[in-house]
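Re: zinc ion structure - here you go.
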Amino acid sequence: MNLEDEEITFVEPVYAPWDGRRVPVTLLGGYLGAGKTTVLNEMLARTDVPIAVMVNDVGDINIDAALIRRHDGDTLDLSGGCVCCSLKNGFLEAFGQLRQRPEPPEFVVVELSGIADPRSAAGLSNTPGFVLDSTVVLVDLDQFMELEGPESVVADAVRTQVRAADVVLLSKRDLVDQSMTARVTARVEEIAPGVPILPAASAHSAAGLIGLGARRPILDVGSGASLFDQYRTRTIEIPGTTTRAALDDLLDDLPESVLRAKGIVQIETGELLLVHVVGRRRTVESLPMAESAEPTDLVVIEV
Ligand SMILES: [Zn+2]
């Protein structure tokens, strides 16, 4: 037997802090100057649950971190590199720091650097104790056509960010007229077909985007209203006798206005499925028995 031909498989140990609970991670991306810090502050101002914030700045001095308002969680300052490339280890270490705590934060929000590729950061966010919730990308209505235009050296980076979005949020709306809003919207639709674009009147809407796709089984529509009062929520009852095919049909037929849908569905075999829709991204996964959850209605959030 030739040992050299043998494939060596390294199985990573499964490590599940906090009894297997996974904290939802929201990535906030968008090019330099798109208003990410403003949006983040809006998010924090609208909720008092503990949110751990990571702020990434490629420079050595993290200006944005200094601008983040005080909140119940903490701000982890990630400066001197970009979490999607040169500061990957620093990013993972920040999750490691949170993991040391006896109690997890409710949510993690990461303000990406203006040049970051959110897809890379998204991959890193699925780490023990954490799960990617959604990627929200800001598009600056005032700058976008120029940044993405034929003369721009950053056009590729800007398009990459938009393509990575689960939801696009338009910022700087007060600086442009309606025709510019329409042009940018049409261009974003070309670049990222099917991604919901929030025609937000202000950055306020962003507050509703934290953690809505969260993994926790029951979304408490009543008491959690402050998190998403820009949106309509409704529930769709799913009979316990449904099949996987019928569930897929139902999800296929959700209208485009649906930003998020989540729930725990029991199919006729008894298996519990966690359904998680964010924009055009959809996951339906078998729920590990350890989570011992009950089926829920499908909670749908629409603009
Ligand atoms: Zn990077």
